[in-house]
Amino acid sequence: MNTEKKRYTYEDFLEIIRILRSENGCPWDREQTHKSLRPCMSEEAAEVMAAIRIYDTTGRWENLREELGDVLLQVVMHACIAQEEGLFTMEDVVQEVAEKMVRRHPHVFGTVHADTSEQVLENWDEIKKREKAGKLYAEAPLHEIPRELPALTRAVKVLKKADKLYESQGTFEDAIAELKAAVQEIEELGTAAGEERLTAPMGELLTAVSNISRLCHLPQEQILCDRIDDFIEKYE
To answer: Three-class SS of residue 24?
Structure first.
């Protein structure tokens, strides 16, 4: 490969990763596995979120471009490792996600009618459910929500799905009552109660907050992140 060229193509990029993984490539890249790269994917996704915040507040887009490239690097690395294992290729990844987008947008590529985002999401969930039916790797509905998600995000998803599939998780007023009850119990126990006794009511409190966020359609993970940033700015 001519590494002096000024403009690389997508195909060039795939070849660069293959070279890095080759016998004469980079020792670090060769050692990586799907498991070892997990922290990298998590960190790069967080850095994209940070880049979006920077773009939103300053209008500077260069960092967003760079961080999206780093996420793409992670995707291609996993696909390259999978190809070496005889599982699938990057081309297979692109094919599958393209098919999924066409299949899950029948209101665009088919004859289904959807005028609102709510209708689109309902169709999406129904199509997703049909896709997973009979799949050996498919877990029970609540277990399939990844535990690797941030806890606040996961909590809302679990509550929302449980409310839809099993039983009502209560009204806004119910959630407020649960929140007040948890606060009262924590207040009565006090800090001297210790971790063992305070853990359960704290869990109830956080679940109640998550339920309020679900019912009010609030992105609690992002809200807390923004609040933390405000807190830091206050002092620094």
So the answer is: coil
CA distances from 119 to 124, 162, 178, 188 (A): 9, 20, 32, 46
Same domain, 148 and 64: no
Predicted structure pTM score: 0.73
Boundaries of domain holding 216: 141-236
Distance CA 18, CA 231 (A): 44
> Are residues 118 and 151 located together in one domain of the fold?
no
Tokens 């996961």 -> residue: 154
Q: Model confidence over 130-168: pLDDT tens digits?
A: 887 766 555 678 888 888 888 999 999 999 999 988 999
Q: How many domains does the chain have?
A: 3
Of 89, 118, 138, which residue sits at a domain end? 138
DSSP string across 173-189: HHHHHHHHHHHHHHHHH
Whole-angstrom distance, CA of residue 112 vs CA of residue 91: 29
Q: CA 104 to CA 91: how far, in whole Å?
A: 20
